[in-house]
Structure formats: C-alpha cells, structure tokens
Write the structure tokens for this entry.
Amino acid sequence: MKIRMVAAVIASGVMMYGCASVVGEGSTQNISVATTPIGASCTFFREGEPIGTIASTPGKLVVTRRKHDIVIRCNKPGYGEAAYVNHSGMNKMVAANVAADFVLTAGLSSIVDSSTGADNEYTSDVVITLRVTGMMQAPGNTRPKPVERAGPAI
C-alpha cells in the first residue's frame, strides 16, 4: 500500500514538474506599448541594462519573465522622455498552485518555475503619455511674418 502511495506521489510530482513552465504561459511574455502621441521610440531596461526596443509605437516586445521589474523609457522629438515601471508580479496560475506544489512535489515545481521565470508576469498592455517640451515649429520658415496693418497709421 505504501509503495502505491509513494508511486502516486512521484507520478503526480512528475506531471506537475514545472507546472507553470509547461502548462502556463511559459518563460516569455508580450508587452504592448501605446503612446500619446503615437510614433515614439521605447527602450526596455531590466536592472539598468537594455533588453529591447520598440522603434515606433504602438508596438510590442517579447520579454523573458524574470523577478526584476522592467523600466520602459519612451522618447519622441519635441517631447520630454516618459517612463513606466512595469513591476514583476507572481503569475496567478502559480499563486493558486503553490500549496499543492509543496504537498505533491516538495517544492520542486516552484523551483523550476522560478528558474525559468514562468512564475512571474508583467502588465501586458502599457499606455504612456509624453508631454510637449518647448514650442513645436512647423517645417520651413521659422521666422514670424510681419503684422500687416489695415488702414492708415496714426
């Protein structure tokens, strides 16, 4: 009887090994970025190092899931830089399975998920607003036209 129970526990553990890595969304994630105004360039940073760029918004970037936050910095000529901190949080699927994991696999599944990043997730849809800096000039002549007066000068 004990052998069957041990075999069942081991079989369950094998089936749940790296549960979120296998059953969940994996170790990568799409992050979509939209900006106001559109057409900004956005660079993603994790721990101060660039990990990817969206050349022109709206756009998306595939990132690896990690426990570290991602900072998204967007730039467009005539606008000040805007940044968004995309916090890494625990994947909902993993949070629901943590208790069962410790009972069935002695935490092995959580170790695998943590090592692959599958137990973390970021906000998938990000909207960033850039603010105008200074005066925006129309292309061409940058000098103002002289004011024409109507009627005789006094």
Notes: Residues 2-129 form one domain. The chain is about 25% helix and 30% strand. Residues 2-16 form the longest helix (15 residues). The chain has one domain: 2-129.
